[in-house]
Request: fold
Amino acid sequence: MNTLEAFAMMDYGPAPEDAREAHAWLDAHDRRFDLFIDGQWQPATDDTRFDSHDPASGEPLASIASASAADVDRAVAAARKAFPAWRDTPGHMRARYLYALARQIQKHARRLAVLETLDNGKPIRETRDIDIPLVARHFYHHAGWAQILASEFPDHEPLGVAGQVIPWNFPLLMLAWKIAPAIAAGNTVVLKPAEFTSLTALAFAELCRNVGLPDGVVNIVTGAGETGAALVAHPDVDKIAFTGSTEVGREIRRQTADSAKRLTLELGGKSPFIVFDDADLDSAVEGIVDGIWFNQGEVCCAGSRLLVHEAVSERLLAKLRRRMNTLRIGNPLDKAIDIGAIVAPVQLERIRGLVDQAVAEGATCHQAECPLPETGLFYPPTLLTDVGPASTAAQTEIFGPVLTAMTFRTPDEAVMLANNTAYGLAASVWSENINVALELAPRIQAGVVWINTTNRFDAACGFGGYRESGYGREGGREGLAAYLRPAWEQRLPMLPLDTGDELGAAAPAGDPSAAFGIDRTAKLYIGGKQKRPDGGYSQPIVAADGQHVADVSLGNRKDIRDAVEAARAAAGWARQDGHARAQILYYMAENLAQRRDEFAARDARLSGVTAQQAGAEIDEAISQAFSAAAWADKYDGAVHNPPGRVLTAALHEPMGVIGIVCPADAPLLAFVSLALHAIALGNRVVAIPSARCPLLATDFYQVLETSDLPDGVLNIVTGRPTELAPVLADHMGVDALWYFGPASGIADVKARSTSNLKTVWTHEGRALDWFALGAGHARDILGHASQVKNVWIPYGE
Ligand code: NAD
Reply:
């Protein structure tokens, strides 16, 4: 036998991991777990339980308590009780606890890895080398944030009690992503693990006890969806952080609409994996293996849509099919296994059903020839070809080891296909030409873009979605910020519920000035032009002294739609550089300054404030226009240097189209502060100005018309906020909504935002001081105007 023949005959022998310690740990707990509340193991009220199984063998592993609403209530009460002391614990002391947790995780790394593999079915190679080291890394990194929090986030405070709900695909890692930033920032938490995979969360509870974490800072309530729903609904929870399906994420947004709870959602994906004709195809094949067959494809950011350049498609797919046959699938505790078991029968059925449906729709299905174990929940690596861009296989998240392949011809086509889903979690771009890859990265709508690499994660780099993949980031500075709020927010007084919808009052009957007032009708401003309202209605606006000043158009649903269309068509604004945007904003400030006295006189007459007060408002508005111009080229992202030879560019990208419902007060200042900071970062805006005093915004048309702002970047529709805001909230073409209208409308716009899972920023019923907000807190406005995209760029040969 020559060397080649010997090499061809070589096979892997079994290399089983020793699971005795993990089993001993389960036995030590009599394979029975209660809830972890207030630092103690507490039984569920009516002792309802469910079993956790090993999906590779079908064997039950342990019996687990199912928390009822009453149990969740106890856990929230414990977290609430622990909050003040934990919040006031110095950052350095909190850092010590987080550091101790990181060390505990490292000390018990192998037991945790085995336990995770037993409970979830994922290969030990992955839990040992990826999941658990990243869990430890997360606690180390956030120990650092706790240490430097006070100086890095001055005048910020923790939110309070965080309710956290996580999925089953990376059980302990998702726990770390949730708990580490929350407690580093001084919040206390109630976390609900997924029902299929509770064991490592319970093991973590024990580590919390080992390090002496104060009782109630971390509480773990096990159970199914109803337990999660009880946590989401609990009135004493200040923030909900959810990772899971888009469907449940939507439900949670609806459920929390009538509260001021903060919300971050990490949802599903259908991420593109784009291979250009100049890519290193062998590396790309390994990337695909990692992109879709890592963790059995049960990965929210899995590269489940392969988009390959037509010229290399056949070659790449041939290589891929050969590689698929070499993948080893089987006992996840075997260290030489690539693909383990699917988490639960229901998930296996879902995968089977979706592949059957794809085939029924005309897809060609290729499955690897690797043998499957006879028992347990296994599914072979699968490749679907001959699929259309609108087919189920191309659109629906399968959450299993199934890759859908399509071809493209040009970079533009690749971008179009990449963005052709409702999701926007991640993307992977493969090309040896860095220029091509970097040109594509900003054009793909996704929170993470990996260049010539895939599925890389780090605590220093934010992770999270665009569009229906959710909002908020986990990891990095932005992930921590999601557990903090500016302290000044809580100091603001509450507004009466329905302030702000009353239009300029009708002129008193019989007043001759009403009949013979200046004949002037302010139109709408859409796509750079003054437009008559679709409905043909207008409303008289009277001054504080009761005199009729002008009529203002009453916009309707159709006008909002036209304005959104104009805003979407102005997408080129986002591609202009900050310097170009700054110049236009400075020019707007200059033009406003030239009309300062005219605006001030108008303001004084309409709102009845003194000439001095009106002048101060206009001066501040001019200053805000300068502020927006100043920030246009300064709100930079960051460059992270995570472990490994890779740089991560955290880019601040615009949200897209922002709908802004202005408050009734400070009619010019609030409008200018909000709209101009939004457009400074490349957003386009549809603004509904103050209903009571819209004429200052309509006078602003002349500033816009003389300022070189491209058509469609700023659109203004006057009318009743209660009628127009719901249209903006429903609209699929609006990416973010800033709502400062009547407080009575907040819950409605939040609930409607589920249409496309747009972000919503509101005053939560508090009276904002527009002088203070613009002057001192531009970064807070800009944070709402942007989303972070992390672009991973490996280097070296
Ligand atoms: P799921 O939404 O069914 O469940 C997730 C968690 O929510 C579980 O703990 C579940 O018990 C709980 N839950 C279910 N109904 C609830 C309700 N009404 N209220 C509150 N909680 C409820 O999702 P899954 O099947 O467990 O996980 C798979 C999904 O998670 C996939 O869509 C995947 O893309 C997504 N995911 C996303 C990320 C991310 O970071 N974006 C990470 C992992 C998984």
The radius of gyration is 28 Å. The pocket of nicotinamide-adenine-dinucleotide is lined by residues 165-169, 192, 194-195, 224-225, 228-229, 232, 243-245, 248, 251-252, 266-269, 300, 397, 399, 425, 465 (CB under 6 Å). Residues 233 and 256 are 7 Å apart (CA to CA).
